[in-house]
Amino acid sequence: MPPVFPMLTVLSMFYYMCLRRRARTATRGEMNSRRAIESNTRALPINVEIVQYAKEVLDFSSHYGSENSMSYTMWNLAGIPNVYPSSGDFTQTAVFRTYGTWWDRCPSARLPFTRTPSTFCSQDYVELAFEEPVYPTAVHILETYHPGAVVRILACSANPYSQNPPAEVRWEILWSEAPTKVNGPQARQFTPCIKQINFPTNLIRLEVNSSLLDYYTELDAVVLHGVKERPVLSLKTSMIDMNDIDEDEDEEKFGCGMDTLNKQFSIVTLREWPTNGYFDKLPYELIQLILSHLTVPDLCRLAQTCKLLYQHCCDPLQYIHLSLQPYWARINDTSLEYLQSRCTLIQWLNLSWTGNRGAISVSGFSRFLKVCGSELVRLELSCGHFLNETCLEVITEMCPNLQELNLSSCDKIPPQAFNHIAKVGSLKRLILYRTKVEQTALLSILNFCSELQHLSLGSCVMIEDYDLIASMMGAKCKKLRSLDLWRCKNITESGIAELASGCQLLEELDLGWCPTLQSSTGCFTNLARKLPNLQKLFLTANRSVCDTDIEELAANCTHLRQLDILGTRMVSPASLRKLLESCKDLSLLDVSFCSQIDNRVVLELNANFPNVFIKKSFTQ
Known about the structure:
With 620 residues, the chain is of the alpha/beta class. Helix content is 27%, strand content 17%. The strands form three sheets. It has a twelve-stranded parallel β-sheet, covered by helices on one side. Strands 2, 3, 4, 5, 6, 7, 8, 9 and 10 form a nine-stranded antiparallel β-sheet that branches. The protein starts with 6 loop residues before the first helix and ends in a 5-residue tail after the last strand.
């Protein structure tokens, strides 16, 4: 009979690993002492402080506004404040695309990647350039509505205005904190205590997490304080017990988590041990299960201990699902090269936010996919500005089993490159938000990718005729479950009719800020009658939505969970009561700027339907 190992043995293995990690952490005394000194000392005032507002917005992951406007766009973060200290919903501010957890509770929601470090919670980002490189002494963020989304502030060593790009780009975290709930939506100046860094910077990055917010956060301006000369640290330092420093902080600062990752990947000489202790007695599968809970940096560290654990840490089964987004600042061609042998069986890969400013080359990305792309089912490449036509061609050739492709905010890909996507007939999810896809390429994709279930075309401004696109969807994409047409400028009732007739499985439809749709044509009534499975419907900023449309939704779309009718002037409290009584699963109702729905009505509806979050925005 094989030996039986009690649960205590497995738990002892975890304890053993924790002790080893604690021992390794303790050996980094010199580095930890330096960090403790830098974060707990005052700079002597040896030069004059420079105060500057952002000169330019360089990059961002999403925004609420249009690509051809300034309202609610990230570009509003450049220059002096437009709104602060006023509070409320103003078009002159910077607003990200989402808030709360509503987007995680709809049919288009994606499954999360496992092994994401608990210290990484960023959902969106914006990068700002300033005129003068300085050693930062303070960062002020002027938040004018629903503050509290900023979770991380970073500084970059690269000068975006320099003619000579540096050989190495460094990012340093100035401040980081988990999302917190702020009481009240009022404006505030957010000034966290930042860490001192050893290089001047004029490139600041804000990362946000809006999951705890009751509405969209709005940012007005960012102020950078700093000095031209590196501050001299005071010799008077407070005594700190190094055991009080959170071990996870090492990963969060990149340095200990990913700065040496490439070297750790390449280690081949390992110390010989006469025995591996209890690990020799554990089944291979059980060790694999234990290691599956470790992050990528932890796997790299553990791989250095002995040959047995090196073998386990390099097993391709540990890399079936791999997200490198939390380590975006350290991923480069060398990282991908070292990962190749471990990722031969990879099915889910997240490279979102990685590779910018030359970190990943087209050739490096192509080499990786040629080795590791055959089993890929899901590929996340959001904000991958290194991507070009060659990259898309390699994806379509090397990833024959691909079902999900995210190219959100990959705005550097040329329009003609999107034609290659039509070769991936197995696609079920395609996200093209804020890309330069053109009509011809999109028609080809829709024609050949008939398995599509989720499609995002939000803010795709280069499509000339959305009616033609909707007609093709109705004819070819019968399995479509979610469709994002956010800020589509030219779809009419004709396109909506074709779409509703052909895609009757639709459960989610975003028609927010589509100005050419008019309720008087019967387009919304037609939607309600033809799409009984709708769970999410956004008709944001369509002022023509009326009581008839709401009553049709109440009669036909009883599974509705989320409805946004912000800005309409034609909906009365009576029709909303009918909707709430009929749609028992409704959880989100946005009636901001609906002229007939005042605060008194909202309070009454909240009292009678407590399970529904009814949002009423305001401007002061």
